[in-house]
Structures are given as structure tokens and as C-alpha cells.
Amino acid sequence: MSEQGPGAGPWRKGEPEAHGLSAEALNRAADALAVAGERQGFVVIRNGVLVYERYWRNDYHLASPEWRNVSFSSGKSWGSTMVGLAYTKGLLGLDDLAARYRQPAASGLRPETTIRHLLTMTSGGTLNVKPSSRPPRRLDDPRPPGPGVEYAWEKVGEKGSPPGYGVSLPAGQAFYYDGAAADHLADIVATAAGVSSHRFMMEQIVSPLGCDNFNYQPEGVDRNDNVRFGGSIVLSCRDMARLGQLYLNGGRWDGRQLIDAGYIGQAASPSPANPSYGFLWWLNAAARVPAAPATMFFAAGARGQFCFVLPDQEIVIATMGFGAAQLSAEAAWDALGPVISQLPPSSA
């Protein structure tokens, strides 16, 4: 793929019409996304150029391009990138046993669990978990953030998990969407790299991508400086779009192959146990979002934290926010579909 995007600098801006899009249609899409009152931002990138953005203020956010939203589970796709970089550097193999880097007695994972199992949500689970990301505080809430979260042993698997989950369910047998098992990838990368996963992410991914407004909630970094792999990132919509552009570029960024192209391809390809899931990315090959292109893949988090990547159209869309309403991917595409549906693939 051709390399596009801002490199380590700011996004280059352009008019929508210069890149085959309609400003009027984008305005209608933004208005539709904003109806529920919980959006903070909406950013559209085409051909590596920022062609549209809109921001809103609510009880939790300011209407600013620099505002940092809580990623929730869209952070899993950033975590996938962390594993991808470790793989690119030859620090680990995708079919390595997790036990090579973190013993089952510490992780709670099945001895046969591989890194690939963890990336595809087929690990069989663990009862050694960290709590979920903290929701953002209201603007008028003066309380400081809490301490970093640590692993704690649960007695049984969470409600809805398969029989034997985290106890006797073999790795590779079933897909079950659960960030608790994936969180252990942060410790695996730290062992493989010889530095904390927080440092590895910030110095070797966030900095090269040129992210200006990206970090982790204090609650998302433990006493060992390892992160909650499945969430707890705080970032702007513009920085979220950098992740999508990196994958649209096939892993190239700022003149070099930052992430192995083969890894990027696997991350965005159906995994055996779920055709709608790759390496911690949701896929649309099985029409999970019926109105969207089949080749689209996306990062997704609670309350509508999305980074949609559309390879055929060379478009990245990031939208984030928080409030009383939940924005589903399907509802987002009710708004975005009219912008995209008649657009031919880019020739830029």
C-alpha cells in the first residue's frame, strides 16, 4: 500500500470536495451523530488528509480537538499494535506459548494458550483479571484519579462466559469476547521487550506516530508500569485516526515499516473461530455492520468509541464521546452511510 498521513507532524488539512467528499453530506452526518448529545468528536481522513472534523461540549467533554476521550475497548486495537511491534522486532512469535513469558500460575491462562489465542479471544480465559476502564469524570467533578489497578483472582468466570472459562476450557476451542485475558498481553510484551508495556507503547508507538494527546488513565497503569491492555487509554479523535491510518498504510509510517505488513494483514483478516474478528480488531467481512463496506474493519469501545478503516475508499473515521446514550456501530453507519455509499475507491 502507499504510505499516507502526517508522519510525526500534525495532520495536513484539505477541503472535502478536493478529496471526493461532500461537506454538506458530512455536516448532515455530524448532525445525526450528535442527536443523542454524547459525541465529543468526529474526524474524517481521506488520502491521508484531514478533510472534516466537528467537536461538541457536554457534561464530560470540551469541544476541543485536543480533548482526551476514554478509549474503553477500542484500546484493544492499540494493544494489538503493541504486540505487532514486538513481533516486528523479533521479540516474540505469534504462536509462542504465553507461558514462555508469563507462567500460568501467575496469569491464570491455560498452559497451551498462545499469543495468537489471546489476540483472537480464544484463550480459554483466566480468573486473574483487572477491572474495566474508569468512565470519564464529569467536568464539574473535582475528585482526583484513583491508583493503578492490579490483577485480582475471581472465583468464577463472568456471567455469560462459556462453561469452564478460566478453569478448564481449552485454548482455541471457543471465541469469547473478554478483555481480562487479553490484558495479560501487556505483561507478555514487557517480558519480551525488557521494558514496561507503558514505556514500550509510549516510546515506540505513540511517539513515532506523532500522537499529541495520548496517554493512559492513572488507573490503567499498575505498580509495574504495565498497562491495561484492553482499554484505559485517553486520547483525542485526531490521534485515534492515526491508528487507523497506520493500518490503512499496511504498517508503514513516516518513511519506514513500523509494523510488519504481514501482521497488519492478519490483524485485519477473519480468525478461525469468528469471521468478524481479527487480532483485536472487529471486521465487517460477515456484514456485522450491514450498511458498511465488507472490507471495513474497526476498533470499537463502549459508548461509541470507534475508529473505522475503509481500505477500498482510503478513508479513516474516528468518533468518540460519552454520555447517557450508547452509539452502536450500526447506528453510526446510519449517519455515515450516505457519505460513503456512493463514493468510488480513491485513485490518489
Order of helical and strand elements? HEEEHHHEEHHHEEHEEHEEEEH
Instruction: Please report the number of helical segments.
Output: 10
- Morphology: globular
The percentage helix is 25-40%
Taking pLDDT < 50 over at least 5 consecutive residues as the criterion, the unreliable ranges are: none
Distance between the termini: 12 Å
Q: Pairing-aware structural class of the strands and helices?
A: alpha+beta
Rg: 19 Å
Structural overview:
By secondary structure, this protein is an alpha+beta fold. It is about 25% helix and about 15% strand. It has 10 helices and 13 strands. The protein has helices spanning about 25-35, 75-90, 105, 115-120, 180, 185-195, 195-210, 235-250, 260-265, 330-340, and strands at about 40-45, 50-55, 70, 130, 150-155, 215, 235, 250-255, 255, 280-285, 295-300, 305-310, 315-320. Strands 2-1-13-12-11-10 form a 6-stranded antiparallel sheet, sandwiched between helices. Strand 1 (about 40-45) and strand 2 form a beta hairpin. Helix 1 (about 25-35) packs antiparallel against helix 10 (about 330-340) and helix 2 (about 75-90) runs parallel beside helix 6 (about 185-195). The longest helix is centred in the N-terminal third of the chain and has 14 residues, at about 75-90. The protein is globular.
